[in-house]
Amino acid sequence: MYSAGPVAVGTDRAIGKLTVDGDIYTTGKLITPSDIRLKENITEREAREALDNLCKLRIVDYFYKPEVAEKWGLTEEQRKRTGVIAQELAAVLPDAVKDIGDYLTVNESRVFYETVLATQELCRLTGDLDQKIDDKVEEISQRLAKYAARKKMLSSMASNLDSKDKKSIVSQSHLSLISSVSQYKEKRRSRRASSQQQQGLCGSRWAQGTIILLVGIMAFCLLTMSGLYVLDWHNRNYGYHHVYHGSQSAEPPANMVLSPNRGVPHWQPDAPPVMPNCVSLQCKNYCCPDGEEEPDSEEFNGENSFEPVSRSTFTKREFGTGVSIQLPEYKMDIDSRYCVEKSCNKKLRVFNLFIPISKYYPNLPLEVLIKTPHTKSVSNCGYVSYFANKQCSDRKKSTMDDTIYPASSQIMENLFELDVGDYIQSAYRFRVSYIAEACFAHESNGGTYEEYNLFFYRQCNTNNNSTTF
């Protein structure tokens, strides 16, 4: 052992310790035994605790006092050091600090191994975070691939419609119109003949008395109908009992506007259905219990294709709330034409919309776009629990679990994907409000939200050539 510069080496008899002032240089080996054969009571340290301790340490730059530097023979450059304060370290790691009488010393090897433990904990946390990121990226990739495949399938189906099929549909519509005119003329002739016979009967007094009695009955019925209409108008505009806007789990009232079995309306002449026509040689029947059907006309040929809905016959009618609902894949507007009797009430802010779907619509999800004013947002509240949601029989057999509840998910802003294709009938709830969590609100009468319930149902008994939109 030798020293360059002033070095004081001696033994402090008061504390029995060897003290060295200055720098120490060695040409031999400094041996620190660490063999397991020399150790006992070996226990592992908690890495998370080491990370917490490391966060509590304060690393500082400091200068030794001039009198200390002069005593130890330190230059001005050697006065500046980087490290910890012994008193602060003692509060975190007491066993890393030792009191030798005049001052406290730091066991730097103890601090080093605490840092190693903290680094191991950071590596573990980073690995877990990487795994979670990889899983999320994989999930998003699968959803995008599924979305792209469905888009490709719908585009291929729409492109198969050629000009010959269009001409065939126009010709059938012309023949249907001629047939309707002929039937109307025949009915008119029969009415004229019946009217002439009735005029012969009016010649007798008995017939005249009967007519007077019938007129009185008709007048009474007219007055009764007028009173009922006034009551109905009052209930429709000021009553609250006929529109259901309860919670998701509650049962609907008995007088709600639905069929007695909580089904769907039997006839909606002004509401165009989704994918109403099939114009292929073999028209596959999805979901409906009939199986597959073929059209009677021999002029159809080619692969499966579907006629898009033409909106020239139907006039769009807004809700009057600034909200619009669209089916972007079919360029359709879901507006007040889909309201049935009292199912839509602007004053109560509840809109129950019944949307028919043809039996030619495949077992695919349906995209719904809900546009709102810029100050409001739409909330996806899931399926309508009180509605009789019914799965297609073939889809129900292929399902792993026994659930029959339809699902709705948000794929973009204001764009949602509904499990319509797998159900004979299904219902979904959306709420538009100034707040983000409108699904947990209780009342719509105070203006908290507007509720839009979409009821989809299959038209299984509609002939594929009977109606053209």
From TrEMBL:
<dbReference type="Pfam" id="PF13884">
    <property type="entry name" value="Peptidase_S74"/>
</dbReference>
<dbReference type="GO" id="GO:0045893">
    <property type="term" value="P:positive regulation of DNA-templated transcription"/>
</dbReference>
<dbReference type="GO" id="GO:0003700">
    <property type="term" value="F:DNA-binding transcription factor activity"/>
</dbReference>
<dbReference type="GO" id="GO:0005634">
    <property type="term" value="C:nucleus"/>
</dbReference>
<dbReference type="InterPro" id="IPR025719">
    <property type="entry name" value="MYRF_C2"/>
</dbReference>
<dbReference type="InterPro" id="IPR036388">
    <property type="entry name" value="WH-like_DNA-bd_sf"/>
</dbReference>
<dbReference type="GO" id="GO:0043565">
    <property type="term" value="F:sequence-specific DNA binding"/>
</dbReference>
<keyword id="KW-0472">Membrane</keyword>
<dbReference type="InterPro" id="IPR026932">
    <property type="entry name" value="MYRF_ICA"/>
</dbReference>
<dbReference type="GO" id="GO:0016540">
    <property type="term" value="P:protein autoprocessing"/>
</dbReference>
<protein>
    <recommendedName>
        <fullName>Peptidase S74 domain-containing protein</fullName>
    </recommendedName>
</protein>
<dbReference type="InterPro" id="IPR030392">
    <property type="entry name" value="S74_ICA"/>
</dbReference>
<feature type="domain" description="Peptidase S74">
    <location>
        <begin position="34"/>
        <end position="133"/>
    </location>
</feature>
<dbReference type="Pfam" id="PF13887">
    <property type="entry name" value="MYRF_ICA"/>
</dbReference>
<dbReference type="Pfam" id="PF13888">
    <property type="entry name" value="MRF_C2"/>
</dbReference>
<dbReference type="InterPro" id="IPR051577">
    <property type="entry name" value="MRF-like"/>
</dbReference>
<dbReference type="GO" id="GO:0005789">
    <property type="term" value="C:endoplasmic reticulum membrane"/>
</dbReference>
<keyword id="KW-0812">Transmembrane</keyword>
<keyword id="KW-1133">Transmembrane helix</keyword>
<feature type="transmembrane region" description="Helical">
    <location>
        <begin position="206"/>
        <end position="231"/>
    </location>
</feature>
